[in-house]
Each structure stands twice: as C-alpha cells, then as structure tokens.
Amino acid sequence: MIYNSMVKSVLIYGAETWSLYEDDRRRINATEMDALRRSARISKLDRKTSEYIRGKMDAQDMIMGDITRKQLIWYGHVERMDPARLPKIMIYWKPEGRKQRSRPQENLGRWNIYSYEWKRSKNGRMEQSKAMEYESRKASSDVLKPRNIYKCMLILK
C-alpha cells in the first residue's frame, strides 16, 4: 500500500529519539488522518469518521503505536550498549543545578546574515565586530513590512 511505503515512512523517520508532548501527538495523529483522507479522496465536508476512513484504507494500526514501538526498540538497544557509549550516557544524563532566570535574548542572527566590520583592537590585532549589524538591521526592518511595499507600489503607479 502506498500509504505505508511513502507517507508513513516519511512521518516516522527518526522517531526513535523523539521526545513527544501531547501537542506533538495530536498533530501527528491529525497529519496521519489528513493523509489517509486525501488518499481515500474523502473530503472533510463528507463528514466521515476516522474509523470509516481507516476501514476503507485498510489502515488499522495508528502511527502513534508504530512510534512507541520504535522508541521501545531503540531504548532496548541503548540498554544493551556498553556504559561508556554516548547514547547510554545521554539517556541517564541529568543537568546539574538550575538554569538562570533571565529575559529571553533577542535572536539577531536568525537568518545567519552577518555584516562584519573589521576593527583594530587595543593590542593591535584585527578583529571582527558585529556591533553595527543590529543598528543596520533595525534601520532596514521597515523596508520589508507590507504597508511599505504597498506604499512603494502606489508611488510607482
């Protein structure tokens, strides 16, 4: 069946190491049902139940069961590993202390676009500086806003 070989395999690739929250589980189930519904060519407007669609597509196993099974197989594999192996160390790792409370930092390098400025330091070496980056990005942030694009379009008419 195409669903098992194409859709399901893509959805659960690497699922052995995922840590899933309830929201993630809900989204995975929704994506699975969307793929099954599209494969069966059933619209949401047809108002068919998930059980009906699963029966029509002969897909009785839910994807969350497969993910849980893969995670348990991986956990068993890690448990049999030598204690010096990194995956086994990471499973039982507990960070020491607590994270410092602070305000979330602004992510200036979100697109990894940096304009470096070279300057001479006190000891005479040339060093890169990203000090001007924030100001230039702050000044150019108005350029990409939709209202400014609209204004430019009006001016060009």
SSE topology:
Layout: H1 2-11, H2 22-39, H3 50-57, H4 63-79, H5 86-91, E1 117-120, E2 126-129, H6 131-140, H7 146-156
Antiparallel strand pairs: 1-2
Give a brief rundown of this model.
The protein has 157 residues and is mainly α. The chain has helices at residues 2-11, 22-39, 50-57, 63-79, 86-91, 131-140, 146-156; strands spanning 117-120, 126-129. The chain has a domain at 2-91.
Task: Explain this structure.
- The chain is mainly α and 157 residues long.
- The chain has a domain at 2-91.
- Helix content is 51%, strand content 5%.
- The protein is built from seven helices and two strands, in the order αααααββαα.
- It has helices at residues 2-11, 22-39, 50-57, 63-79, 86-91, 131-140, 146-156; strands spanning 117-120, 126-129.
- It has a two-stranded antiparallel ribbon.
- The longest helix is centred in the first third of the chain and has 18 residues, at 22-39.
- 3% of the residues are buried.
- The model is unreliable at 111-116, 131-146 and 148-157 (pLDDT under 50).
